[in-house]
């Protein structure tokens, strides 16, 4: 099968992946990568481990979800770096079904503040392999207390990633599906093989104009410089 439509998954534990098909019957092959050798990914009642391939059949106008939040096992794992490919075009939504945010809550009865955590839904449509790039500009949003972090994932073997930041250079060698995380920062990224870059952060909650805690999470696919253009519409 000539596989020409590809997408690279970028998410940690509590992942949620939705495949979207709009033309005919589409067969998607998922190459499973995980950071935990004990983790089992369940798809259609079958279990898949690291480096195994799962075959998913999508009917026309069908959406198919793969979510770790429906698992009953206690073993957690990340499938960041796993990739999906097909001979037909398809879309992928990737995100968290339960992104954990640590918060403080106030009990109005005894005036005490308690530490806790909340689970939020977060998602973003992925760009396909063909739109990956070799140069990126990273940033830190102004006015945000939590700088967040970037996840850079390689689409091929022997990928050299160079990170230039304020006169300093950092480099990594990655193979297909491998990834590296860096803190939110103003930097210039270069890859000799096309990469995917995704930015994650929590918003800042304010009380009386002062930051008090982390707000909800967000996920942003960073567009490579090769896709920059001359005109945009502001949302």
Distance between the termini: 40 Å
- SSE order, as H and E? EEEEEEEEEEEEEEEEE
Measured on Cα atoms, how large is the radius of gyration? Answer: 19 Å
Per CATH, which architecture of the largest domain? Answer: Sandwich
* CATH-defined fold name of the largest domain: Jelly Rolls
Identify low-pLDDT runs.
Answer: 110-114
Annotation, overall tally of beta strands: 17
Q: How many strands, what sense, and barrel or not for the largest sheet?
A: 7 strands, antiparallel
Helix coverage percent:
under 10%
**CATH uppermost class of the largest domain:** Mainly Beta
Quaternary: single chain
- Counting DSSP H or I runs of 4 or more residues, the number of helices is 0
**Number of structural domains:** 2
Structural class comes to mainly beta
Global shape: globular
* Mean pLDDT across all amino acids: 80
Question: Which strand-content bin applies to the residues?
Answer: over 45%
């Amino acid at each position: 099968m000539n596989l020409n439509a590809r997408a690279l998954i970028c998410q940690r534990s509590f992942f949620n992946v939705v495949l979207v098909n709009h033309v005919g019957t589409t067969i998607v092959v998922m190459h499973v990568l995980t950071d935990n050798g004990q983790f089992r990914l369940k798809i259609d009642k079958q279990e898949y481990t690291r480096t195994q391939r799962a075959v998913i059949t999508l009917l026309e106008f069908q959406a198919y979800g793969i979510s770790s939040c429906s698992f009953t096992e206690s073993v957690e794992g990340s499938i960041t770096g796993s990739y999906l490919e097909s001979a037909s075009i398809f879309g992928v939504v990737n995100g968290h079904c339960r992104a954990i945010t640590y918060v403080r809550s106030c009990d109005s009865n005894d005036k005490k503040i308690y530490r806790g955590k909340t689970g939020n839904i977060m998602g973003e449509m992925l760009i396909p392999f063909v739109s990956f790039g070799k140069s990126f500009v990273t940033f830190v949003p102004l006015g945000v207390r939590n700088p967040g972090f970037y996840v850079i994932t390689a689409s091929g073997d022997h990928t050299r990633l160079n990170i230039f930041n304020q006169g300093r250079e950092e480099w990594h060698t990655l193979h297909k599906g491998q990834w590296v995380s860096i803190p939110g920062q103003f930097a210039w990224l270069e890859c000799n093989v096309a990469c995917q870059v995704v930015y994650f952060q929590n918003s800042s909650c304010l009380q009386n104009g002062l930051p008090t805690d982390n707000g909800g999470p967000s996920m942003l696919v960073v567009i490579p410089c090769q896709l920059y253009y001359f005109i945009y519409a502001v949302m």
